[in-house]
Amino acid sequence: MTVEDYQAGQVLLIDKPLNWTSFQVVNKLRWEIRQAFNIKKIKVGHAGTLDPLATGLLVICTGKMTKQIDTFQGQIKEYTGTIVLGSTTPSFDLETEINERFPTEHITEGLIHETTKQFIGEIDQFPPVFSALKKDGKRLYEYARAGEAVEVKSRKITIKDFEITKIDANLVDFRVVCSKGTYIRSLANDFGKALHSGGHLTVLRRTKIGDFNVNKALSIEQFIAALPKRVE
Questions:
Q1: CB-based contact 203:82 (threshold 8 Å)
Q2: What are the distances in angstroms from CA 162 to CA 78, 113, 185, 225?
Q3: Which residue of 62, 71, 117, 161 is 20 to 30 Å from 31, comparing CA positions?
Q4: Is 173 a catalytic residue?
């Protein structure tokens, strides 16, 4: 593609690696495009954040296509991942250490499959306190990391599918199809509670946003390799 293509607007599918923020991916791609075409500015944005501990599909928009970001953000998303039953963490994932353990002897495979039905449809969900949502001008995770209590309001979200794909002792693999605004970390925590135990997320991968699929996405390295050599 030419610099004119990127400026006119492109939709790039990127497979975000582990431990990268979505913001870092956007910054990296913007810098690489600027270097490749020797330009000072190019608009680049993403259509939906992924946590650093998650991998998978980022829809990246360039140039005039950044105006479509809100449209892409509102589309249905699909995730796969793993929930560990029997313990919780304050962040609902591996960002923080286990803070409580619970019995799991009563949990059967049948109970696990049956419990997913409680989460299908429109439900109320509380976002994690370790999240980037803002309250009074500060990110929720800023309050959480400072040990400050903060009231988090629930929000309406929709779970279209919640499929258990594998159960190995306390490890539960799943596939979820959900609306914008769904926190899979919160779903993992709530799922553990519904099983009268605890649960937290250990693996998360976004596989689809609307019609976009991660199997068509490039790694950051593949994207950079496809760019032309710097134009002087």
A1: yes
A2: 10, 9, 14, 37
A3: 71
A4: no
Beta bridge partners of 218: 14
DSSP 115-140: HGGGGSEEEEEPPPSSSS-EETTEEH
Instruction: Indicate the residue type of 65.
Output: M
**Which position has the token pair 């998650």?**
54
Structure tokens that stand for 156 in this block? 């309406």
pLDDT band at residue 129, thresholds of 50, 70 and 90?
confident
pTM of the model as a whole? 0.91
90 within 8 A of 209, measured Cβ to Cβ: no
| 51, 93, 136, 173: the active-site residue | 51
Both tokens of 161, joined, read 């599918």
pLDDT digits (tens, 9 = 90+) for 30-83: 999 999 999 999 999 999 889 899 999 999 999 999 999 999 999 999 999 999
Tell me how far apart the alpha carbons of residues 48 and 76 are, in angstroms, rounded to a whole number. 11
Nearest to 183 by CA among 131, 119, 116: 131
Q: Which residue has the tokens 């790039």?
A: 12
